[in-house]
């Protein structure tokens, strides 16, 4: 996109250590590995869970299951970290962290949808930390409900609305800090980490200094309930009693706990691995800092969690662990150590997620994936701080605080984070499977096995934790994917889907062996030669309906000689043609060539277009006549509504930017249609020679006339313009015999069967299914040939074997035939097929019937015969939507080429949309 910098420039600025330390938007890149990655990651993982939920996890699940949970959590985390490290060391990482890596790897659809989900995960996590902080404050300073005892510290009233007020005030404090900027927070976070570390040290030292003691814990559940809990110090009996699970009701939510719900709570304390990656916009060298800092931070936290699990399992009885989540204060040598640690960890984690979420939102806004709703989030301060994105995030966290309880949000937060981790693993897996040469990360400790295992682990754990939340998140993800697929602007980030498709298509093309082709699975593979798409759009859309899932290629020959040109003029044109394909909503490839003549260029395209078994077998040409073509661009709103050109409508939408090609540029590229005085680049003899060349090359040939009269009903659809209502009326007419040679009155030669097949294919296409298929059988009732009834029955039997539903119309053409015969001798056996053309094949031989001899014109015929033939066609097929006629071979005598063309012109004059077809290959089969 024009708003993006060159990828090489980006790499030069941010991917090389020692390069410029200025990020886009003027933000200073001043953070290193320690302050930018390690400290935020450790603090994010040493959040409220460390101080207030370790006892909850061990008390509910027991030590063994708690260690299993920790192992599963860190197994998922380490696999995801391997993927993060691989992606982050494969190029320059800018602001946005995980979102930037996913979007630049998987493309805007996946990147935008996963990025928004990851943003929501951070928002919910910030709310969880705030609620945990309020819970810790009320444990110390909150009034005990129903208690008559006076405590100077317990002065804060408790209740839902009070908790909401306290959390809102604390969130406002975090907002003020975040508005100052990430740099201030990162410097302050080091001192916070020191305080948290001292608090943890005091927890580890306390069992060595404190003697065993008992506590009375009071909960109000309708009435005051008192629990007798004890701290035993290091004790083997205590350890044995805490080994196994004892799931019970959580006293904060009154809900019965399970393995999944406890794991969800514990995982909220382990999921901060992206905290450093989210700061990628402020890192001096993110490709170095993110892997190194994240691995060290996660390893450090794993050790601390293991020590804490063993500590509480060995020193505290089950009642203390289950009934007082803040028990660390009770068993500490100096309780304020724990209180200070809880407050610092919670505030730090809250500010970290608030800043990280705002950076993700800012990156989403800069990429303009969600349009105007996020546009204000692009605004930054002079120092580069996205303060509007911070305000957006603050407002959403404020909404989350209404949930009221930490444990109530844990499952949702965990599901969102697991979905984001799964997306990172998917991104790395896709890069590895695509085998792109440019995917060569400096971090090598990963493989597609680790990526796939991490992806599956995340998905499985999501559904084990909460199937409802997981299903809802998947549905939301799919909706976002669809929205971005149809509405997001095109990007130059690269689409991993294209790399994967290329990788797989190459494999399958090699497997598509032309020696194994069978007529049962034949389908048209069409090369449509287009001189100027302004006058050919209706024909392009029609052939798109006719291809039946086959190959469809738009070919164009530009006259010129590369020796006389400074550069190839063809390559810059592909974007315009591909944009045309998008606007028309057809499924077609484009192939252009430069040649001294149209004939030579068409030969080139027929020979080299396609790969392996995917090569065109049918050539379609517009008819050569003197009609003045109409400009379709002036009829279709998608081409003439220039006011939409400034909008965004990637990929064939309503006239917006499509890979840099807007409507005015598209109109300017294709020249105006030819008028009556304009010279033509193609002579009649050359046009007929192209037909002859294609037949020599064993290609089927179709000549399309009057298709500018075809009504292409379209309605606006997502992603472009498509065919609208199916045709309620009209018919598809087939004349399966060579009308210019009445002596060849057979109807089952290869060419005739080809006509029937093509008409049947069109009748199967969406939009043509309600059109009636009519087959016309011409008979000479005055010639003494009384076998026309047998012919009709034979044709009906053939249609039954071919499973073609059609109406047979008998046409008496004695008058026309008399004009043809004139003084010529009549063929002895007109019903025999005339020169090998009309052999009545039985159905079983259709698959292997050899191609009939090429039926050429019988030489000059009278104008009266041609005019009568034209009248016959108009009288019987005047109401048809499209007509399929038999196309004879061009004459071998080059002096008769213009006569051949003029005969075809008179025969089809004023007939309406008509397709003249010459088929060379068997295409029908009656075998199963």
Provide a descriptive summary of the structure in words:
It is a single chain. The protein has 29 helices and 14 strands. The protein is an alpha/beta fold. It has a 10-stranded mixed sheet, sandwiched between helices. A two-stranded antiparallel sheet has the order 1-2. A hairpin with a 2-residue loop joins strand 8 and strand 9 (720-723). Mean pLDDT is 80; it is low at 1-27, 642-656, 715-728 and 827-853.
Question: What does the secondary structure layout of this molecule look like, with pairings?
Answer:
Blueprint: H1 7-15, H2 33-45, H3 48-52, H4 54-88, H5 98-106, H6 108-141, H7 160-180, H8 182-209, E1 213-220, E2 224-231, H9 236-241, H10 259-267, H11 286-315, H12 318-323, H13 336-366, H14 387-400, H15 406-434, H16 448-465, H17 467-487, H18 496-511, E3 526-529, H19 537-546, E4 552-559, H20 574-584, E5 589-595, H21 598-608, E6 618-622, H22 637-640, H23 663-669, H24 684-696, E7 700-705, E8 714-717, E9 720-723, E10 731-735, H25 750-764, E11 772-779, H26 788-801, E12 807-812, H27 814-821, H28 863-877, E13 882-886, H29 897-907, E14 914-918
Parallel strand pairs: 3-4, 3-6, 4-5, 6-7, 10-11, 10-13, 11-12, 13-14
Antiparallel strand pairs: 1-2, 7-14, 8-9
Overall mean pLDDT: 80
Strands side by side in the biggest sheet: 5-4-3-6-7-14-13-10-11-12
Fraction of helical residues? 40-55%
Quote the beta fraction. Answer: 5-15%
Poorly predicted runs of 5 or more residues:
1-27, 642-656, 715-728, 827-853
The biggest beta sheet is recorded as: 10 strands, mixed
């Amino acid at each position: 996109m024009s708003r993006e910098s060159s990828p090489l420039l980006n790499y030069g600025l941010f991917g090389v250590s020692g390069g410029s330390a200025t990020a886009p938007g003027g933000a200073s890149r001043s953070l290193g590995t320690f302050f930018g990655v390690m400290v935020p990651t450790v603090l994010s993982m040493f959040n409220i869970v460390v101080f207030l939920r370790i006892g909850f996890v061990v008390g509910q699940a027991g030590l063994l299951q708690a260690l299993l949970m920790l192992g599963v959590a860190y197994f998922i985390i380490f696999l995801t970290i391997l993927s993060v490290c691989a992606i982050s060391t494969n190029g320059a990482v800018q602001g946005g962290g995980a979102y930037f890596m996913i979007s630049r790897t998987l493309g805007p659809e996946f990147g935008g949808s996963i990025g928004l989900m990851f943003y929501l995960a951070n928002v919910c996590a910030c709310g969880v930390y705030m609620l945990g902080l309020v819970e810790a404050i009320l444990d110390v300073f909150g009034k005990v409900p129903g208690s008559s005892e006076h405590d100077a510290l317990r002065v804060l009233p408790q209740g839902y609305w009070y908790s909401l007020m306290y959390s809102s005030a604390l969130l406002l404090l975090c907002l003020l800090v975040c508005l100052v900027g990430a740099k201030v927070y990162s410097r302050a976070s080091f001192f916070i980490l020191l305080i948290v570390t001292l608090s943890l040290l005091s927890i580890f030292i306390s069992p060595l200094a404190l003697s065993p003691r008992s506590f009375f814990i009071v909960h109000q559940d309708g009435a005051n309930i008192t629990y007798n809990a004890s701290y035993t110090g290091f004790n083997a009996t205590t350890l044995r009693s805490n080994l196994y699970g004892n799931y019970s009701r959580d006293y904060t939510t009154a809900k019965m706990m399970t393995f999944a719900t406890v794991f969800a709570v514990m995982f909220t304390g382990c999921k901060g691995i992206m905290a450093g990656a989210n700061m990628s916009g402020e890192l001096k060298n993110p490709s170095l800092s993110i892997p190194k800092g994240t691995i060290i931070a996660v390893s450090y936290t794993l050790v601390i969690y293991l020590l804490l699990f063993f500590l509480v399992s060995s020193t505290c009885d089950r009642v203390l662990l289950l009934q007082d989540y803040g028990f660390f204060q009770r068993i500490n040598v100096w309780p304020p150590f724990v209180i200070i640690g809880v407050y610092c960890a919670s505030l730090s984690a809250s500010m970290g997620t608030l800043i990280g979420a705002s950076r993700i939102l800012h990156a989403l806004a800069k990429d303009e994936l969600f349009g105007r709703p996020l546009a204000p989030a692009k605004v930054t301060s002079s120092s580069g701080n996205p303060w509007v994105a911070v305000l957006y995030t603050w407002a959403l966290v404020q909404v989350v605080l209404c949930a009221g309880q930490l444990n109530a949000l844990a499952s949702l937060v965990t599901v969102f984070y697991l979905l984001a981790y799964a997306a990172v693993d998917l991104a790395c897996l896709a890069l590895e499977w695509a085998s792109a040469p440019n995917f060569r990360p400096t971090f090598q400790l990963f493989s597609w096995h680790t990526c796939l295992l991490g992806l599956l682990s995340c998905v499985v754990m999501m559904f084990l934790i909460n199937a409802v939340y997981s299903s809802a998140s998947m549905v939301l993800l799919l909706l976002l994917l669809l929205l971005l697929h149809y509405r997001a602007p095109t990007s130059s980030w690269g689409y991993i889907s294209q790399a994967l498709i290329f990788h797989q298509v190459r494999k399958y093309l090699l497997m598509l062996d032309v020696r194994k082709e069978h007529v049962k699975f034949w389908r048209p593979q069409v090369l449509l030669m287009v001189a100027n798409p302004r006058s050919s759009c209706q024909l392009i859309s029609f052939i798109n309906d006719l291809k039946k899932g086959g190959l469809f290629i738009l070919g164009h020959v530009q006259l010129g000689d590369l020796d006389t040109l400074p550069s190839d003029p063809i390559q810059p044109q592909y974007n315009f043609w591909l944009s045309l394909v998008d606007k028309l909503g057809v499924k077609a490839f484009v192939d252009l060539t430069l040649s001294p003549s149209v004939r030579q260029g068409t030969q080139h395209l027929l020979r080299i277009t396609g790969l392996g078994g995917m090569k065109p077998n049918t050539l379609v040409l517009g008819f050569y006549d003197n009609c003045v073509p109409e400009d379709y661009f002036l009829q279709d709103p998608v081409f003439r509504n220039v006011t939409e050109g400034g909008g965004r409508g990637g990929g064939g939408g309503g006239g917006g930017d499509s890979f840099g090609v807007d409507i005015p540029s598209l109109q300017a590229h294709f020249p105006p249609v030819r008028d009556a005085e304009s010279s033509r680049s193609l002579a009649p003899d050359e046009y007929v020679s192209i037909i002859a060349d294609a037949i020599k090359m064993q290609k089927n040939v179709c000549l399309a006339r009057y298709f500018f009269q075809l009504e292409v009903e379209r309605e606006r659809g997502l992603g472009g313009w498509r065919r609208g209502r199916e045709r309620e009326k009209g018919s598809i007419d087939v004349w399966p015999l060579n009308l210019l040679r009445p002596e060849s009155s057979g109807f089952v030669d290869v060419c005739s069967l080809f006509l029937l097949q093509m008409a049947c294919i069109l009748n199967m296409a969406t939009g043509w299914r309600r059109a009636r298929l009519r087959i016309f059988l011409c008979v000479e009732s005055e010639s003494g040939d009384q076998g026309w009834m047998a012919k009709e029955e034979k044709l009906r039997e053939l249609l039954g074997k071919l499973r073609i539903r059609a109406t047979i119309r008998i046409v008496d053409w004695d008058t026309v035939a008399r004009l043809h015969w004139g003084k010529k001798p009549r063929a002895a056996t007109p019903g025999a097929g005339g020169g090998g053309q009309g052999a009545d094949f039985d159905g079983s031989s259709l698959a292997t019937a050899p191609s009939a001899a090429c039926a050429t014109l019988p030489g000059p015929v009278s104008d009266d015969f041609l005019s009568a033939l034209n009248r016959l066609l108009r009288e019987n097929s005047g109401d048809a939507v499209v007509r399929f006629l038999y196309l004879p071979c061009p004459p071998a005598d080059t002096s008769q080429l213009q006569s051949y063309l003029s005969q075809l012109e008179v025969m089809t004059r004023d007939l309406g949309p008509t397709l003249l077809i010459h088929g060379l290959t068997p295409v029908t089969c009656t075998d199963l």
